[in-house]
Amino acid sequence: MRINQALSVSGILAAALLASFSASACDLKVEAAWIRTAPPAATTLAAYAVLKNTGSGTLKITEATAPTMQMAMLHETTLVNGVAQMRLLDSLSIPAGGELLLAPGGKHLMLMGMKSVPKQGDHVTIIFKDSEGCATSTEFSVQASPP
To answer: What confidence tens digit (pLDDT) does each residue in 58-83 have?
Structure first.
């Protein structure tokens, strides 16, 4: 009888652990992540990717960080009266099952305060955090053009 109770308790604990693990999986998937190669004296870099929401609800990206950079910011370039302007974004929203393109001339990440300028072929880790606190870490490849 005690063995059956112990097995039942073990099964319940295992199921609870598995449920909490799968519930905490982030809904963000990052693909085609790249950073444009910059000159050696560059002080800022731009990062691009395809952000996919694999979840069933709207995904709100509220923060981006890069351990090798002082700052990573969500930005958008828009044309105003024929002049390109960049503005800081508080967040990025991706509909359920949808995707958002971070691309030159549109939404992108600005990376500033780097310890050293990454060279072509290097990789930079960028971490996205959503409104639920879930963090998704991705390696961005430094290259001259999109993958």
So the answer is: 999 999 999 999 999 999 998 889 89
Other Cβ atoms within 10 Å of 59 Cβ, number: 26
CB atoms within 10 A of CB 48: 20
pLDDT at 11 exceeding the cut of 80: no
Number of domains in the chain: 1
**What letter would DSSP give residue 133?**
-
3-state secondary structure of 123: strand
Question: Is 117 within the bounds of a domain?
Answer: yes
Residue-range definition of the domain harbouring residue 84: 25-143
pLDDT at 9 (0 to 100)? 46
Contact 46, 34 (CB under 8 A): no
Query: Is-contact 75 108, C-beta < 8 A?
Result: yes
